[in-house]
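Researcher: Last one for today. Full complex below.
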Amino acid sequence: MNFKTCLIVDDSRIIRKVARRIVEGFGYEVDEAADGAEALSYCTGVMPDMILVDWNMPVMDGLTFLRRLRALPEGGRPKVLFCTIETRPERIAEALAAGADDYVMKPFDGEILQSKLTEVGAIAA
Amino acid sequence: MTPEDFDKLQGLLATRAGYRLTRDRMNLAEHRLGPIARREGYANVEALLANLWAHPVASLGWAVIESLLNPETWFRRDRAPFDVLEQELLPALAKARPGGRVSLWSAGCSTGQEAWSIAMAAKAAGAAAEIVATDLSQRAIDKARAGLYTGFEIQRGLNARAMLRWFEPDEENWRVRPELAEIVRFGRANLLDEPTDEMRFDVIFCRNVLTHMEPSRRARLLDGLERRLVDDGCLFLGLDEGLEGETVAFRPVSGRQGLYVKTPAAVRRAA
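Model: Here's the assembly. Have a good evening.
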């Protein structure tokens, strides 16, 4: 069995736990990171298939992480979804321009995540 | 509510709306009728229903019916039908019709997500679409026409790029942009009513409506759709809604689940 892998990057342990449960339900193997720097060092070791990343985090924020990720060898491969409370259109556009595949506004639920992941081709329709 | 109340509700829904209220929905019915009972000043749901059976007032009856319909919908539901519409049907129809004018109907549109999804497809395909969207529920139509959706609703089925392209923030919510709003007309309509005008459509979406119909009322609904559809027009049903042996008016398009084409009149007469 060839499991797909997902890295969940959020400074809230509760959000990570909620997202993990949903994503595991789609058959993903999940790892967690608490900020962008931790996530980046994870990705230099092993590149996940999908990354859910928060915007505002200590040490390194999600946008900085995303830009550095996309500059890594193989860093263009993971599907990256921003998951954040930021809802201003110009910020959403900024995240997409920086290389996010899609953008999820918190709060979200399993149905929203499923529809977003289907749209980017991370899970089957 | 008593089992007798529920029997009468089933009868009300079946005769007026052709809607099959299954027995497993008794708790749901109780839950949905609570707010109506409070709004109308009744002590509880039993009192509301007792009054409705004794004095069948149309407005109260419709409020009860509306609350029991299944309003569930989301943007680009099942995705494939909207891709087929955008990439295959609309380009062909726009080329074939004078002025590229294509008319479409979202029949049973609930809170409007389907109609807006059709409108997005039309804009993307560059078709001059005129979209009519109807539902039995006035409340659903009011919401659809407002084009205002919560963060949960807007994200269900729409990716962020489409959301930014076709909607703008309105406080905590998202409102449809005028360029989509101006090509969709919403109105309340009962799909069981006989067509009283000559309006015809190139494409009809009537998805996940038949599923909830009383079997005995399906023929009447299908007849109405047939009369509203131009010859060779296209009908989208829900992915699991088959018409096996039910009518010769529509034939399925192979490889396009849920898509039917209206059989030309001459062929139907021969059959």
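Chain A touches chain B through 23 residues (CB under 8 Å). The helical segments of chain A are 13-25, 36-45, 62-71, 89-97, 110-119.
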